[in-house]
Write a structure and sequence with these properties.
alpha/beta, 6-stranded mixed sheet, 2 domains, Aldehyde Dehydrogenase, Chain A, domain 1, Aldehyde Dehydrogenase, Chain A, domain 2, 18 strands
Length: 457
């Protein structure tokens, strides 16, 4: 069996990879486990230097890695370079802060001495999607390595080249072999990998449906999971907001990665007194983005990752229109020659409860504008979702915004006058059907450690 990487710009096969047999998968997991038995005994300085070397290699290879992303999943070069540099930054962050996060914490009790120690748990399986083929992996890998764990990656098949490039970077860092391995395999192998006795925990970024399956299986085996799943992030625009600036931020947030991001803005909830003005600004900002070959440096939007994803998105747009939404921008498959997975930036207005764009996640460059009576109604609409990954508010009343972000919006991350994004220093994750657990920051590095109590009388 072979796995193919296909260029979404022209449909051509970039490369075919021999799929790992069950025996090879088992061998790779065993290699990582044997390496972990040595790696877990290393000190924080050793691990920090390891991460710094990985960071240096990422920076050194940024151009070739960005090109690989452009070829395999259509990410524009400038976005790909930014992604690689962000991966380097998370390695730097944990190299600089990991030792403090994992230092023993003394606790006063009746004992002569008692403290909490953070110990590595073993080999962590990462099941990752295609949309951020480097960042999704390093978001787990950097804290895992700093904590003394090792990793096995089951990446999306379409970005196998990226997966193997990550493995090579870790190997080329030269500190220790086999602390991280990529499994070249389809999704059908995941169940057996989770069952492997050397796999101690699982982290998954993907759809809610995938998360349900992985959580159920890992739960039966009493293996911990961290799940970062879908989202339908609401962006609330209040009447006192700087509408033109808000629209620019919202356009960027909707079109990031050609709209293929779990934390891309999905629903724009606008108080009705400024809805018309904001929508005009949003249309201008989205129209200004240049769609084209991701290998061209001036391209803002590349193709979607696969033609079938583009076709599914277009069907969703048509369904929303039949349900009563109005399309004021895009909504059509571009008339390009050849085999392309492009889709135009699209805006749907008049979106209401019961329509697909209100109730479900739209994974592509399609903005849904929803009218709200006032701030109370806007919060109600924002929280009227099964998801809970990110949310944003645009207003000049920062006191009100802080209260809404902290106490009323139901999401794992709430941003004011800025698009939702991940940052190495801040915990990242969702609630409800957007998943559980946290990545990044101090909380992220504590997800896959044994928080051990030591009591000495």
């Amino acid at each position: 069996m072979f796995i193919s990487s296909i260029n979404p710009v022209n449909g051509e096969i970039i490369k075919e990879y021999q799929e790992d047999s069950p025996e090879i998968i088992n061998q790779k997991i065993n290699q990582v486990y044997q390496s972990w038995k040595t790696y877990k005994q290393t000190d924080f300085k050793y691990r920090a230097n390891f991460l710094l070397k990985i960071s240096a290699l990422l920076k050194e290879r940024q151009d070739e890695l960005a090109r690989l992303m452009a070829l395999e999943m259509g990410k524009p070069l400038k976005a790909g370079i930014a992604e690689v540099l962000k991966c380097a930054s998370v390695c730097d962050y944990y190299a600089q802060n990991g030792a403090a996060f994992l230092a023993d914490q003394e606790v006063k009790t009746s004992a002569g001495k008692s403290f909490i120690s953070f110990q590595p748990i073993g080999v962590v399986l990462a099941i990752m999607p295609w949309n951020f083929p480097f960042w999704q992996v390093f978001r787990f890998l950097a804290p895992a390595l700093m904590a003394g764990n090792c990793g096995v990656l089951k990446h999306s098949s379409g970005v196998t080249g990226c997966a193997l490039a990550i493995e090579k970077i870790v190997e080329d860092a030269g500190f220790q072999s086999h602390v991280f391995k990529t499994l070249v395999s389809g999704s059908r192998a995941i169940a057996k990998v989770i069952e492997h006795p050397f796999i101690k925990a699982v982290t998954l970024t993907g759809s809610t449906e995938a998360g349900q399956k992985v959580a159920a299986q890992a739960g039966r085996l009493i293996k911990k999971t961290v799940l970062e799943l879908g989202g339908s992030d609401p962006y609330i625009i209040l009447a006192d907001a700087d509408l033109e600036q808000a629209a620019k931020v919202c356009a960027e947030a909707r079109l990031i990665n050609n709209g293929q991001s779990c934390i891309a803005a999905k629903r724009f909830i606008v108080v009705k007194e400024v809805e018309s003005e904001f929508t005009a600004y949003l249309k201008a900002a989205m129209s200004a983005k240049k769609t084209g070959d991701p290998l061209h440096e001036d391209t803002d939007l590349g193709p979607m990752a696969r033609v079938e994803l583009r076709n599914e998105l277009h069907e969703q747009v048509i369904k929303n229109i039949t349900q009563g939404a109005k399309c004021i921008l895009g909504g059509e498959i571009p008339d390009f020659e050849g085999h392309h997975a492009f889709y135009q930036p699209t805006i749907l207005t008049g979106v209401k409860k019961g329509m697909l764009a209100y109730d479900e996640e739209i994974f592509g460059p399609v903005a849904a504008v929803i009218s709200a009576d006032d701030v109370t109604d806007a919060i109600r609409i924002a929280n009227d979702t099964p998801f809970g990954l990110g949310a944003a508010i645009f207003t000049t009343d920062l006191v009100l915004a802080e209260d809404l972000a902290k106490n009323q919006l139901e999401a794992g991350s709430c941003f004011v006058n800025e698009g939702v994004k991940s940052d190495p220093a801040l915990p990242f994750g969702g609630i409800n059907q957007s998943g559980y657990g946290r990545e990044l920051g101090q909380f992220g590095i504590h997800e896959f450690v044994n928080i051990k109590t030591v009591y000495i009388k």
